[in-house]
Amino acid sequence: MSDHPTVADAPMGAAPTTDTGTGSATAAGTEPLRRRARAALETARARTTLLTDCLDDAGLTAQHSPLMSPLVWDLAHIGNQEEIWLVRAAGGRPALRPELDPLYDAFQHPRAERPALPLLTPEQARNYTAEVRTHALDVLDDLARAGRSGDPLLEGGFVFGMIAQHEQQHDETMLATHQLRQGPPVLHAPAPPAAPPDADALPREVLVPGGPFTMGTSDDPWALDNERPAHTVDVPAFWLDTTPVTNAQYQEFISDGGYRQPHWWSPQGWEHCRQAGLEAPLFWQRDGDGWLRHRFGRTEPVPGEEPVVHVSWYEADAYARWAGRRLPTEAEWEKAARHDSAKGLTRRYPWGDDDPQPQHANLGQRHLQPAPAGSHPDGAAPCGARQLLGDVWEWTSTDFTGYPGFTAFPYREYSEVFFDGGYKVLRGGSFGTDPVACRATFRNWDYPIRRQIFSGLRTARDPDGD
Predict the structure, then answer these.
(1) Do 116 and 215 reside in the same domain of the chain?
(2) 333-383 pLDDT per residue, tens
(3) How far apart are CA 103 and CA 79, in angstroms?
(4) Across residues 188-209, what is the average pLDDT?
(5) In angstroms, how far apart are the furthest CA atoms of the chain?
(6) What does the angle CA 431 – CA 361 – CA 402 come to, to the nearest 5 degrees?
């Protein structure tokens, strides 16, 4: 497997191209923005602390998989990016530790090589990130008092939202490292609630009406460059699964010989399936006629009602073919998640424009697993589909590239260098994604072989199949 930086490794960036009105020229006008930015930064740091303080130094410095960095690298990288963007770029202050820049540059050092680097120790990494945070909050307070605006990095508090998202994305990466780690459980969270009473009565699929809708955004101050600009896309009508594909449904694919029959797979997918010896989702193992799974240090029966997780794009594509369906395009997914055809409106989230709450979606590591299919009726999209945000990232059929009119910001390495046709787009976030980095325009991407990420799927079909 290639070890290219993923979305969480890439330098964060994207600046609003218009004044959203949140970058007020007065200190009073910036106070709500300062509170929001500070809360986002503190929420991210609390989660980083949770994911690192639960292990001893040996656990933090070990490489638990060649696919992932040692957790101590992620910790110091978080601090280094915060220093570069908040202390230096936003605050105009001198560098604290410039010698760390090349050491924690994701593009200079592939993940598999990072354990051999002269990394900061866990204590040094904690002290460094704490020192950076002190300076970063001073910068935030200074900018709020001055009411500074006009700088694209500062409009709408973008640079602070950018860094909060960057840390939360690394937190999800660190959560994936915990899933790969061997040893007893160190993370604990309650199970998600049972599915609501109407879950079993939901239709298998919903019809998403055809027509144009606004894809992407030009006015969300914390949106990243690959989400921009807003543009009109005409999407023909299609049918979409009401909920993500479940473990029980995926087991039918396995039982029917899905991993042994090449005609369900693309040529590249079948070659990978054979070479990698794929037989089931990652972390599954046979248990007589059933299946067990490994989940954060626990071994347990695979729950049939949960969305399947830890499948690659190749597996998702093969399942969809076996089911007589296909993966949705990225535009189809976003239209289903955002567009209210009856009102002619495009929303920020499936349920509307209000920020996510627990009743809307399974986000933010509140649970360490997906919620049962059919959960969160309050988070349903206008088309009737549920769980489009949270639970599992959903593979689409679309290659990752820029939208028409795309402009890289702050520089190419966040998105543009990945526009090479080798990455597939995932949408919707997972149970490990924080709300600050999860909205209906947010785009994730990865290689089609990847499955250590919290990835699942839902399928689509054309109306001609009626």
Answers:
(1) no
(2) 999 999 999 999 999 999 999 999 999 999 999 999 999 999 999 999 999
(3) 12
(4) 97
(5) 67
(6) 75
* pLDDT tens-place string over residues 314-326: 999 999 999 999 9
Residues 203-214, mean pLDDT to the nearest whole number: 97
Q: Which region, left, alpha or beta, applies to residue 457 given φ > 0 means left and ψ of -120 to 50 means alpha?
A: beta
State pLDDT tens for residues 98-112.
999 999 999 999 999
Q: Does residue 20 form part of some domain?
A: no
Could you tell me if 152 and 162 are in contact, meaning their C-beta atoms sit under 8 angstroms apart? no
Kindly report the average pLDDT of the chain as a whole number. Answer: 93
Residues 135, 205 within the same domain = no
Average pLDDT over residues 136-161: 88
pLDDT greater than 70 at residue 17: no
Are residues 161 and 208 both part of a single domain?
no
Whether the CA torsion 260, 265, 270, 273 is positive or negative: it is negative
Integer Rg of the chain from CA: 22
Residue 89 reports pLDDT greater than 50: yes
Which structural domain, as residue segments, surrounds residue 383? 199-247+309-465
Cα angle at 77 between 93 and 391, to 5 degrees? 120
Quickly tell me which residue has 């530790």 as its tokens.
Answer: 97
Is the full-model pTM beyond 0.85?
A: yes
Q: Cα–Cα distance between 84 and 294 in angstroms, integer?
A: 38
- Of 404, 394, 93, 456, nearest to 247 by C-alpha is 456
381 contact partners, CB below 8 Å, separation of at least 6? 336, 337, 338, 350, 351, 388
- Considering the domain architecture, whether residues 360 and 449 belong to the same structural domain is answered as yes
| Residue 20 in this model has a pLDDT that exceeds 50 | no
- Extract the runs of DSSP E, i.e. beta strands, from 69-128: none
Task: Please count the other Cβ atoms lying within 10 Å of the Cβ belonging to residue 63.
Answer: 19
Q: What is the CATH number of the domain that holds 371?
A: 3.90.1580.10
CB distance 352 to 172 below 8 Å: no
The count of other CB atoms within 10 Å of the CB of residue 297 is 15
Pairing between strand 290-295 and 238-241? unpaired
Q: Are 351 and 380 in contact (CB under 8 A)?
A: yes
Are 123 and 131 within 8 A, CB to CB?
Answer: no
Read off the pLDDT band of 412 (50, 70, 90). confident
Residue 67 lies in a domain: yes
- 213 and 354 assigned to the same domain: yes
**CATH no. for residue 64?**
1.20.120.450
CB under 8 Å to 335, separation ≥6 — which residues?
A: 208, 213, 215, 233, 235
405 φ/ψ angles, rounded to the nearest 5 degrees: 85, 10
Chain position carrying tokens 């189809």:
332
Decide if 7 is inside a domain: no
Q: How many residues does the chain have?
A: 466
Please state the domain count of the chain: 2
